[in-house]
Each structure stands twice: as C-alpha cells, then as structure tokens.
Amino acid sequence: MIEALGRLIVFEGIDGSGKSTQFDLLCDRLSGEGTDFVRLRFPRYSEPSSALIRMYLGGDFGDDPDAVNAYAASSFFAVDRYASFMQDWRSRYDGGAMILTDRYTTSNAIHQGAKLTPEGRGQFFAWLYDYEFRLLGLPEPDLVFFMDIDSKLATKRLERRQADTGTAGDIHEKDLLFLDSCSLSGRQAAAHYGWHKIDCFLDGNERSIEEIHNEIYTVLKHV
Q1: Which has the minimum average pLDDT: 105-109, 122-126, 175-179, 214-218?
Q2: Does a structural domain hold residue 28?
Q3: N or C end: fewer C-beta atoms under 10 angstroms in the chain?
Q4: % of the chain with per-residue pLDDT over 90
C-alpha cells in the first residue's frame, strides 16, 4: 500500500500513448488498497471554465492547431486548471492528500510547445512553469510519468479508437503532422523538466499494459 504524502502525480503523453489507461489502472489499484487520494482529469470539458478550450479544439478559432499561438492556447487550459484547484481540490492538497491527475500543466508543454521550433521551446518551457506555478499559484508536480511513444504508433492507436467510438477527433488528433511535433516536443520537455520517462515500446516491441503498470507502481512506491 502506498501512503498519501501530499504528492502531486501527473500522467502525461501524446494522444494515443496509453496515458489514460495507465492512469485508470493505477487509480483502481490504489482504491483497492485503501489509499486516500484525489483523482483528477483535465481538461474538464463539462465545466464552464473549459469554454475556450472547447472552442479552440472544436475549430472555432481555426481548423488547425497553429491558428492559436502557443501562449494564448496555454492560457485557455491554465484557466480551467486554476478553477478546478480553487473550487475542487485546494483544501485536500493543502491538507496533505495525494493528488493523481491525467494531464496537467505538462500538457501545455507538449501540445503547445509543438507549435514552436526546438530552439524556441526552452523559453516557452520556462515561461509556462513560471506562469502557472508562480503567477497563478498552482501546485508544481512532484512526479510526472511521461508515456514515450513514436507518433506513428500512437496514430494507429488513435485510428482504432476513433473507429471503435465513431468519433473524428479534435483538431489536435486529426493533424498527424502536429502529433509528430507533439512527440518531439514531449521528449524535449521530459528532458528539460526531468520527467520520468516510460517506454511504451522496447526494441520495436509493444510492452504489455500490465508490464507498464507494474513499472509505474514500483516507481511510485519508491518516490
């Protein structure tokens, strides 16, 4: 059993990385063990604070991700996180509860950083953490699991998921070149911030869901 020690644990990765699957598996395991924690998922599409996110991803500002620059789009997502923190989990966090979240500020580093050149991302990464953690006052993660996967393999997963659900995806998911940029930006962000990288494939072979889950659980126990 893992003790709740006031840690903020984030699951991150590009679309199709298996991030949400691993997040749900860990949450289910911790719940079964009786661990006290708060479960979060961003963006919160059903909340008023996500209005600009829904407009952006729905194509209201343009039908490709670059229609909105990295800094403006980042602010849309930051507002939703700020509202969630102030309304839903600030007291639990301040009281020492473990917080687990599927996506966080880290998603801006990946998806909005993808709009910039590799040389321009360092400045953006510095601005992003300063903006959300110092200026807005959101908590900084204690541990970020970054699901590392090649964009072509992630695309195949997305296509299967969209076929199963009958959905077309948002402007991020439909742009395969953008997804490739997100993969590169994510790897650069992981190195910049010191995230814990989880390899989804080893030697060209896809790792099992259970194998990845056990690695994540082991890392979390020893933090």
Answers
A1: 175-179
A2: yes
A3: N
A4: 75
> How far does CA 85 lie from the centroid of its chain?
16
DSSP state of 138: P
Residue 166 lies in a domain: yes
pTM of the model: 0.89
For the stretch 110-130, what's the b/e string if a residue is b when 16 or more beta carbons lie within 10 angstroms of its beta carbon? bbbbbbbeeeebeebbeebbe
Q: Which residue range is the domain that position 59 belongs to?
A: 8-221
115-171: per-residue pLDDT in tens?
Answer: 999 999 999 999 999 999 999 999 999 999 999 988 677 667 666 666 666 665 555
Give CA–CA dist 143/216, Å, rounded: 11
**CATH code of 27's domain:** 3.40.50.300
Runs of H (alpha helix) within 85-223: 90-94, 105-111, 118-129, 151-165, 176-193, 209-221
Kind and range of the H or E run holding 52: helix 51-57
pLDDT of amino acid 153: 73
Residue 158 placed within a domain: yes
| Assigned domain for 3 exists | no
**Total domain count for the chain?**
1
Which DSSP symbol is given to 94? H
Residue 202 CB burial class (10 angstroms; 0-12, 13-18, ≥19): exposed
Exposure string (b/e) for 162-188, b if CB count within 10 Å is 16 or more? eeeeeeeebbbbbbeebbbbbbbbbbb
